[in-house]
Design brief:
The chain is an alpha+beta fold. Helix content is about 30%, strand content about 30%. The chain has 10 helices and 12 strands. Strand 7 and strand 8 form a beta hairpin. Helix 2 packs across helix 3 and helix 8 packs across helix 9. The chain is globular, with a radius of gyration of 19 Å. The relative contact order is 0.18.
């Protein structure tokens, strides 16, 4: 059985407070984007020699870390603790850039939970799958439904973000990921939590032409200071006609929203990962 874990962008991201546990409370709108990895699972023959209950093979354009750190493996182990499921082979093909702020690893984990539920008829339901996903990462629950959502808390409390039509339906997105690694921990240290001038969910419900002046990502300030090349990418996306451009998460991927399919993205950002698709 096969599935296609999608990535996400953040439409605005505001760090609004520090929690007693040391984590930060945020406000953001998660938006799914049809740039996907590919995840396939098959039952493992009982005669197959394997040191664990899941045999994972990772291929594609990007590495996904060691097997011990792989969130797909952790998702399997988490579900196997509470349900009787067979040993499996898993093949993960990576097309979503890593360390990009696009949530690729979280998507793989959440879609693994969904895949196990469907393949082995566990009948968990979305609420229970979200509960398991939250044990693997703050943005993992979003990918259980993978629909636009307003995230608060550490990103794990989800509410509807927009009406059923959606502000971005029919627009085009260009994603640009320079070969830069951003330290999320250092970016958080450089931030002073504050309430935004206007809540990002309210802004996202406005016409997109208003977003440039009112929809912000608090991480851009400290990250652009350390990596001015990322600021240059954002500026170039606007110069190419983007209606709105922003860094996703804590970076280092940036995206531009266009009314029509943008041209020359790959040539303009030569040497960087780029993807263009319709939303």
């Amino acid at each position: 059985m096969i599935t296609f874990p999608c990535c996400k962008i953040n439409l605005g991201l505001n760090v609004v407070g520090v929690r007693d546990d040391g984590f930060h409370n945020i406000e953001t709108v998660f938006y799914p984007v049809p740039l996907t990895d590919v995840l396939e699972i098959k039952k493992m023959d009982e005669r197959f020699p394997c040191r664990g209950n899941i045999d994972i093979h990772v291929t594609g354009d990007f590495e996904a870390g060691s097997e011990d750190d792989n969130l797909v493996v952790k998702a399997y182990d988490l579900i196997a603790r509470d349900f009787e499921i067979p040993r499996i082979h898993a093949h993960l093909y990576k097309r979503i850039p890593v360390q990009a702020g696009l949530g690729g690893g979280s998507a793989d984990a959440a879609f693994m939970i969904r895949l196990l539920d469907e393949r082995f008829r566990l009948n968990m339901g979305n609420a229970e799958m979200e509960r398991y996903a939250a044990m693997l990462g703050a943005d993992c629950p979003f990918f259980i439904n993978a629909e636009p959502a307003y995230g608060t808390g550490i990103g794990d409390i989800l509410e509807p973000a927009d009406d059923e039509d959606g502000n971005l339906d029919g627009y085009w997105i260009a994603i640009v990921k320079p070969d830069i690694a951003v330290s999320t921990a250092e970016a958080y240290k450089a931030l002073t939590p504050r309430q935004p001038y206007k809540n990002c969910r309210l802004v996202v419900r406005q016409p997109i032409e208003t977003w440039r002046d009112e929809l912000s990502n608090d991480f851009e300030g400290p990250v652009f200071k350390v990596h001015p090349e990322l600021q240059a990418v954002k500026n170039q996306l606007y110069a190419m006609g983007a209606v709105y451009a922003q860094m996703s998460g804590s970076g280092s991927a940036l995206y531009g929203i266009f009314e029509n399919a943008p041209g020359n993205i790959a040539d303009t950002f030569d040497g960087m990962f780029t993807a263009v698709m319709k939303l």
